[in-house]
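Work Package 4 report. The design task specified in the project plan requires that, given a folded chain encoded as structure tokens, an amino acid be chosen for each position. We show below one input record used in the internal validation round.
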């Protein structure tokens, strides 16, 4: 931790993940005085999220980072669903009425780097090796206790504090805000790899695909030119998977013609669906995974967190710059964003549960239903917009 930690700021943001960084950029752009604190000494080099959806690209335009994301990422034109080699449906982002008619595949570490570099250009920085270990809301300010790596303790006072400290948020615990929901019994294996794809009926490098097999689903997400993120829910996922293990999952669940050429990274994640009962207590707000943790099916968690950040930036800028700081004003953030997360969470939870159905009868009914349901007039455009992160309750 550097010694030039400020004594007092308008907004202290705890956590330099995508939600915290997006918020810091938006506040700096409105000339709000912010500090970002993160326990980790270095930005993470591995990636959980890879998908950035159309609405998030629009939202990120407001802090001027979308151009860089488009420049580095892989355009994804559709989200297709398969049952082994049978094609079920393919909602096309390119048909949407939206500014960006695509999703983007980009490692989360690159998204965070782009956000951090924008923050730097706006005059902000992240203080690393700075763990928030105590918090006291005094009514007119909040005092934070920050512990450095060597155990030194520093105090910061802030008019507002934002917990962007992820799934295991210590600030949420300090506030005693219940985090309702549960952990899935299966865990998610995430693998970065090179694939070769052959045959007429197989995956497209321009589509994100969910493939349902007898043992569950596997997701294929184009990530950088030539590399893919493969994600599968497994009852007993290995901590790290070998090429042979990944090929076995692909052979069981995916269309034919997909060969794993090389595994560059893999990890196992315990996944949850949990929702904080409140997004604000006094002068402290929750955003991102600290407020809601979703199943990664559908790739929505980071997207929802970035959208929280930009909404909260409006509310906090109005409070700090224009004096709109009544209880009603500050409550606008939770009123707007909690129903959105609830709706996204319901969608990702349903996808996770039906994707794991094992009985032949249930799988057959699911596949038949998806095919038929998407053909009903108006359903496909509606579902496409939901996958693209639009039209959840606002
Ligand atoms: C396998 C997998 C795949 C996923 N794929 C997608 C996807 O494609 N699209 C998508 O939208 N989402 C996806 N997600 C979800 C996404 O990764 C998360 O929603 C996102 O990282 C949450 O961002 P955040 O900024 O809220 O928190 P985090 O990224 O968790 O960042 C929290 C930060 O807070 C810091 N911190 C914690 N405690 C303290 C403390 N006390 N003091 C100081 N700092 C602290 C941590 O060091 C960390 O840097 C996926 C998740 C998984 C597991």
């Amino acid at each position: 931790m550097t010694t030039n930690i400020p004594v007092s700021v308008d907004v202290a943001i705890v956590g330099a993940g995508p939600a915290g960084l997006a918020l810091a950029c938006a506040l700096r752009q409105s000339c709000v005085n912010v500090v970002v604190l993160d326990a980790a000494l270095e930005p993470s080099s591995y990636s959980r999220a890879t998908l950035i959806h159309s609405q998030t690209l629009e939202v990120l335009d407001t802090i001027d980072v979308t151009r860089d994301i488009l420049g580095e990422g892989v355009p994804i034109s559709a989200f297709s669903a398969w049952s082994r080699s049978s094609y079920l449906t393919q909602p096309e982002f390119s048909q949407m009425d939206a500014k960006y008619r695509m999703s983007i595949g980009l490692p989360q570490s690159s998204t965070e780097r782009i956000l951090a570099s924008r923050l730097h250009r706006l005059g902000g920085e992240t203080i690393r090796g700075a763990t928030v270990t105590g918090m006291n809301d005094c009514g007119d300010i909040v005092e934070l206790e920050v512990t450095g790596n060597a155990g030194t303790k520093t105090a910061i006072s802030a008019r507002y504090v934002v917990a962007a400290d992820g799934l295991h948020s210590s600030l949420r615990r300090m506030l005693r805000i219940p985090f309702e929901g549960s952990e899935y019994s299966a865990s998610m294996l995430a693998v970065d790899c090179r694939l070769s794809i052959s045959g007429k009926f197989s995956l497209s490098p321009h589509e994100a695909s969910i493939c349902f097999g007898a043992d569950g689903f596997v997701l294929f997400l184009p990530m950088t030119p030539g590399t893919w993120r493969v994600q599968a829910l497994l009852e007993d996922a290995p901590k790290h998977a070998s090429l042979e293990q990944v090929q076995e999952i692909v052979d069981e669940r995916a269309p034919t013609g997909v060969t794993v050429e090389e595994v560059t990274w893999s990890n196992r994640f315990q996944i949850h669906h949990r929702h904080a009962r409140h997004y604000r207590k006094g002068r402290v707000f929750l955003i991102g995974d600290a407020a809601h943790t979703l199943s990664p099916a559908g790739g929505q968690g980071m997207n929802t967190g970035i959208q929280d950040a930009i909404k909260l930036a409006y509310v906090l800028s109005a409070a700090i710059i224009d004096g709109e700081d009544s209880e009603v004003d500050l409550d606008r953030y939770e009123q707007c964003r909690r129903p959105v997360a609830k709706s996204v969470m319901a969608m990702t939870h349903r996808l996770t549960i039906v994707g794991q159905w094992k009985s032949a009868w249930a799988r057959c009914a699911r596949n038949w239903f998806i095919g038929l349901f998407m053909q009903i007039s108006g359903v496909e455009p509606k579902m496409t917009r939901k996958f693209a992160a639009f039209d959840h309750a606002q």
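The chain has a mean pLDDT of 93. Validation will be extended to a larger panel in the next phase.
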